[in-house]
């Protein structure tokens, strides 16, 4: 039981990203005495709202809420803790240089010269994708099956999974799913559609946040993941930016009794006799607990905080080998007014605006990062949230764009000049669609993958804490020995995006980890 006079807790959570907050909330709800230690001055990790300039604010990394688990939202009652949406279920608009833009919704598409046959195929294709996503969604919400150490829960999960694939989907759809699962998105889309703008926009969804282009194997699965998580892929804009989501999670955690300390960087996770005993902060303070769950990156956790000497050499090697290459940058622009996008009404601009004209354009943009260069003609996902949320900009507006591709290891480094040059490339790219944007800009900033590592601890700038590729997913994530959130060390767990099911503001990793901790299965 708890004895805070000795700085003792049931569980210590290292890191207050959204997954850490969710994990803490579930554990506290289950009666555990939980301490959360966050290095930064605020919780939220890569899901915060930050000051841009003057009274203007932006969502720093994540800007759209499209993956949050409805179960997490309901269980923690986030609405009663202040979570509100300023726009829900917005469309994606694939921008076209000639102004013939395409509007994409769950199963309907219009504009962009889409033919009747492509529009019909889109409906059929997306309906099937939502069926597949339903099956995949079941796997997102549970710990991966432990193939080395099958317990009763694993056997039940395996049976349910088999049932869902074979009987809910049916033999024909299951065989089609198995055919497609390892494919690249380009081959899948080329089999289905003719319209280049449609294929460009859909392929962008498969590569967003990854180190892949449409031709890279296996990213049909990342395409499905987007739909499988959250509310069937619906895209929302949280009121107050992404920081409002994590503020609600923090409020829920505190209401359940979690003690949260910010500005508390954990230096080491302490181990005695092959079991975790607690943590030591950089300032030397020690906190005790028999269970520690880390929301920090897996490499940071194992190699820096616990230390390799507490694990088998093979395990340490596998952790060191986890690929974590980031290829997305972010730009934030303070505007004195909304720029005009040729062919779009002001009311359209609240939607998710995507620049990805063709699959080949996306692939060409990706080519650069392989050689340590930035894309000369980058792809983008743009949001102007202040159109529906004046709390982000009392006067004027803010625009944020996730930009692909920018490498972590830029040839010559991210010098002041390299940053200014790439920011200029990005603004010029938006100006192709919104010619008067330059007149409206008050201030603009670029966040590189290196900044993401420095500011938010996203090693390599990878927003999933480890690339989402077939060999690093499901029971192989982050490495097979830790796929059920527990590391091969008594009392040591992970609860962040580096674990199954990966990144995106889902809360699923945090929830799944909490349920495993509560279950108390030992390795
Ligand atoms: C540019 C960009 C755009 C994105 N866009 C979207 C989007 O639109 N929608 C979406 O859903 N997702 C998006 N994402 C992904 C999403 O932001 C992340 O996957 C998610 O926030 C990860 O959450 P997490 O809680 O697992 O980890 P993190 O948010 O990384 O949290 C980890 C926490 O641990 C703390 N920490 C680390 N080390 C220590 C230590 N030693 N001591 C104490 N604390 C420590 C960190 O400070 C941090 O707060 C985007 C990411 C990026 C980078």
What does this structure look like?
With 523 residues, the chain is an alpha/beta fold. It has 3 domains: 4-48 and 62-85 and 240-323 and 460-519, 3-Layer(bba) Sandwich (FAD/NAD(P)-binding domain); 123-233, no CATH class; 324-456. The protein has 16 helices and 19 strands. It has helices spanning 18-29, 70-75, 116-140, 152-168, 171-180, 185-192, 196-207, 219-228, 242-255, 298-306, 313-321, 359-370, 416-431, 437-440, 449-456, 508-519, and strands spanning 8-14, 34-37, 49-53, 56-59, 85-90, 92-94, 102-104, 109-111, 235-238, 259-261, 266-272, 275-281, 286-294, 328-335, 352-355, 379-383, 397-404, 441-447, 492-494. It has an 8-stranded mixed beta sheet with strand order 8-7-6-15-16-17-14-18, with helices on both faces. Strands 1, 2, 10, 11, 12, 13 and 19 form a 7-stranded mixed beta sheet that branches. β12 and β13 (286-294) form a beta hairpin. α3 crosses α8 and α7 (196-207) packs across α8 (219-228). The two termini are 23 Å apart. The structure holds flavin-adenine dinucleotide (FAD). Flavin-adenine dinucleotide (FAD) is lined by residues 14-20, 37-40, 45-47, 61-64, 66-67, 209, 265-266, 295-296, 300, 328, 330, 402, 452, 456-458, 463-464, 496-497, 503-505.
Bound molecules: flavin-adenine dinucleotide
Give the helix tally: 16
Shape label: globular
> Percentage of helical residues?
25-40%
In round numbers, the mean pLDDT is: 95
* Low-confidence segments: none
Strand fraction band? 15-25%
Major β-sheet annotation: 8 strands, mixed
CATH class of the largest domain, named Alpha Beta
> What's the structural domain tally?
3
CATH H-level superfamily title of the largest domain: FAD/NAD(P)-binding domain
Report the span from N to C terminus: 23 Å
Q: Looking at CATH, which topology of the largest domain would you report?
A: FAD/NAD(P)-binding domain
- Report the CATH architecture of the largest domain: 3-Layer(bba) Sandwich
Structural class: alpha/beta
Radius of gyration: 22 Å
Number of strands: 19
Largest sheet, order of strands side by side?
8-7-6-15-16-17-14-18
